[in-house]
Write a structure and sequence with these properties.
It is an enzyme of class 2 (transferase). By secondary structure, this protein is of the alpha+beta class. The two termini are 39 Å apart. The structure holds S-adenosyl-L-homocysteine. S-adenosyl-L-homocysteine binds next to helix 4.
Length: 697
């Protein structure tokens, strides 16, 4: 069987469907899965084990046989815990076939084949009865079906079904209960992920302020959860306006309802401010007493000694539909609405007559009406709102724009054309036409968004949007003028890895015939940079686990390793490193340069060399990022922003993902005697736009 996988081609910027073998999909799934991270989550594992032991004992004390239903068994870990704790029999359900196969092997290897039956089905397909998958209903329900938002992986419908058809009334459940907590905060940084702030431009004829259209101001944005490593958000970046409040809980030992509903709590701000964001996380009580608690609370809520690093469960940032000024001590109602899979929030000021009434009208799930939230994702909003970044672009545009410039911008959803207009167009009433080409993928029509944007800023007719791919650009699009200034950020929504934005170079090559002989290209060049690092925690997601709470899960480790090596050459993967601290073991090194003043060459660009390790530590991998040289003296980095030299602590661009290449020492857990250098071999294939790399320690 063949599957088709969508992938953006970095040389054309468009989506292509590639035919892949049947194995491809599942290798991707395994290689990028969170199984390793879960197995490394000691706090989770220990508490599940305690909870399961306690549940088995409670059932045994009642003189009953302990029959366990483990929904989503993965490696079989929780079933093996139950069997070790004395359960009489476990039904281990796993829908994902490669995992179910792995579970069978792992269960066998650990000697539990007679106690655990692995069933490769979705739990809603499982049958009970003498000829069914399960002989009888279970009296212990064990699951780990939670995501950062708790319910995003479908825990509620799965529980609802299990209580109806698969478990006995009054069953024990591990976890017993989940509770969702919230805290109201004001944060310019996080709010900048949802809203476009006015952009100030110092133009020749005074200050210009670019404002978002009113549609954008009032748009509730997207429903999709914003999950982050909140522990990496410094306390100086937000201000808490309320105490931590329990928003709602779910008791998993009783029938669960998945239908949409709302929960409301009363809040009294502890401080006056602008309510913008609801931060949220959950905890699970493994037993009814609440003595075995596993919590995702961030650092300011619980002692740092109790913090367990994990990537499979983080914290949520919810954006209120509007910013709401609140006063210390006033009465507010916070409403959480949820459907089967997601949660969203609303804040209301309490009015006297309403106080006794519960919010019975559920507010509909947020839908972006302004289209900006479809065009720009949250990090992109953050980048557009980053004033120092904007300043650098303004500075460099000011250097290259002349009164008669004909300017073309190639970048997705960029504000550069507007900036270019402000910085030059006044003197070029007719000649200067800033053009832009906002998006190459016709998922939706961004045209309306730009029209609204231009209207709000009296820029109609000042900037022309060309809806043509670069290779289809015609002289008529440019009113038969040659482009004298070609600009880009570069940023393209289809880019996954940093160098995919080199699509700008391909587009520049495609429009060559339209460029004036003395054209200025901004950025004039780009460079690829690399550094060897030791991660504080991120290494865990790709590192073998070996023995987990006494159970041998090496079959899983091998499976992940095989999947990572599936393509023989391992690949770099994108991670937003501001969320994943690391320490540099080498100096940052420039490894390749790309000259945008020239066209993309036919031949590959490759480099080999070695990088000296200047600090002791574990070489987990290499981080790679791009820097764009806007002009001779202004550069922007999409990766390293600062390196503190004594300790090697790194500060990363908070709006971009960097590329991480994990060394095989992480994947295979080899013990290395301290290497002193790392050799590299990096090749940019100009035909595919991809970079292949190899490292030796
Ligand atoms: N129980 C394991 C793995 C948890 S990951 C552990 O704790 O380490 C969750 C697993 O549940 C995934 O493998 C997923 O494929 C599976 N899953 C999710 N919902 C399911 C359902 N309704 N029926 C069967 N499997 C499910």
């Amino acid at each position: 069987m063949k599957t088709f996988c969508g992938r953006a081609n970095p040389t054309t910027g468009s989506m292509e469907w590639l035919e892949e073998g049947e194995d491809y999909d599942y290798h991707q799934e395994i290689a990028r899965s969170r199984y390793a991270d879960m197995l490394h989550d000691k706090d989770r594992n220990v508490k599940y084990y305690q909870g399961i032991r306690a549940a088995v004992s409670r059932v045994k004390e009642r003189g009953e046989k302990a029959i366990v239903l483990d929904i989503g068994t993965g490696t079989g870990l929780l079933s093996m815990m139950a069997a070790s704790a004395g359960a009489d029999f476990c039904y281990a359900i796993e829908v994902f076939k490669p995992m179910a196969n792995a579970a069978v092997k792992i269960v066998e290897k650990n000697g539990f084949s007679d106690k655990i039956k692995v069933i490769n089905k979705h739990s809603t397909e499982v049958t009970v009865g003498p000829d069914g998958d399960m002989q009888c209903r279970a009296n212990i329900l064990v699951t780990e079906l939670f995501d950062t938002e708790l319910i995003g992986e479908g825990a509620l419908p799965t529980y609802e079904h299990a209580h109806k058809y698969l478990v006995q009334e009054g069953c024990e459940a591990v976890p017993h209960r989940a509770t969702v907590y919230v805290q109201l905060v004001e944060s310019r940084r996080m709010w900048s992920w949802k809203k476009l702030f006015p952009v100030h431009v110092e133009a020749e004829d005074g200050e210009k302020i670019l404002v978002p259209p009113s549609e954008m101001e009032n748009c509730p944005g997207l429903a999709s959860v914003c999950d982050i490593q909140l522990n990496q958000m410094p306390s100086s970046d937000f201000s808490t306006l309320s105490d931590v409040v329990k928003m709602f809980s779910v008791d998993f030992s009783k029938p669960v309802q998945s239908a949409s509903t709302c929960y409301r709590v009363q809040l009294e701000p502890v401080k006056s401010g602008k309510a913008q964001i609801v931060l949220s996380w959950w905890d699970i009580d493994m037993d009814p007493s609440g003595m075995i608690n596993c919590s995702m609370a961030p650092y300011w809520v619980k002692p740092t000694s109790a913090l367990q690093w994990r990537d499979h469960w983080m914290q949520c940032v919810y954006f209120l539909p509007h910013e709401e000024p609140v006063l210390q001590g006033e009465k507010l109602y916070l409403t959480a609405c949820r459907d089967e899979y997601s949660v969203w929030y609303n804040l209301q000021k309490a009015r006297a007559e309403e106080e006794e009434h519960k919010a019975d009208v559920c507010v509909e799930s947020p839908v972006c009406r302004c289209r900006a939230h479809l065009l720009w994702n949250r990090p992109r909003f953050g980048a557009l709102n980053d004033q120092s970044r904007t300043r650098q672009y303004i500075e460099s545009l000011r250097k290259v724009l002349k009164t008669d410039s004909v300017c073309l911008c190639i970048s997705d959803g960029s504000l550069l054309p507007v900036l270019a207009h402000y910085l030059g167009a006044k003197q070029v009433q007719h000649a200067g036409s800033g053009c832009m080409q906002p998006s190459r993928i016709d998922l939706y029509h961004p045209h309306e968004l730009w029209q609204a944007f231009f209207k709000a800023n009296n820029l109609e007719d000042k900037i022309k949007i060309i809806e043509a791919r670069p290779e289809l650009l015609k002289p008529s699009h440019l009113e038969d003028k040659k482009i004298s200034v070609l600009v880009g950020e570069p940023f393209f929504t289809t880019s996954l890895l940093p160098w995919h934005n080199l699509y700008f170079w391909y587009a520049r090559t495609a429009v060559s015939s339209h460029l004036a002989s003395n054209v200025t290209v901004l950025p004039q060049s780009a460079s690829l940079h690399m550094m060897i690092v030791q991660f504080q925690d991120l290494w865990r997601i790709r590192s073998p686990c070996g023995i987990c709470e006494g159970f041998d899960v090496r079959t899983m480790d091998d499976m992940i390793k095989d999947s990572l090596n599936f393509r023989e050459s391992k690949e770099a993967e994108p991670h937003p490193l501001w969320e994943y601290p690391c320490k540099s073991l080498s100096e940052p090194q420039e490894v390749l340069t790309f000259d945008f003043t020239k066209t993309v060459p036919q031949h590959c660009l490759s480099t080999e060399g070695s990088v000296k390790l200047v600090r002791k530590g574990k070489s987990h991998g290499a981080v790679l990022w791009m820097e764009y040289h806007l002009t001779a003296d202004i550069s922007v980095s999409t990766g390293l922003m600062q390196l503190s030299n004594e300790k090697g602590n790194c500060e990363w661009n908070p709006h971009c993902k960097q590329a991480v290449y994990f060394f095989s020492s992480v994947i295979e857990s080899e013990i290395l005697s301290d290497p002193t250098a790392v050799t590299y071999d990096i090749k940019f294939d100009t035909k595919t736009g991809e970079i292949a790399m190899d490292f030796k320690l």
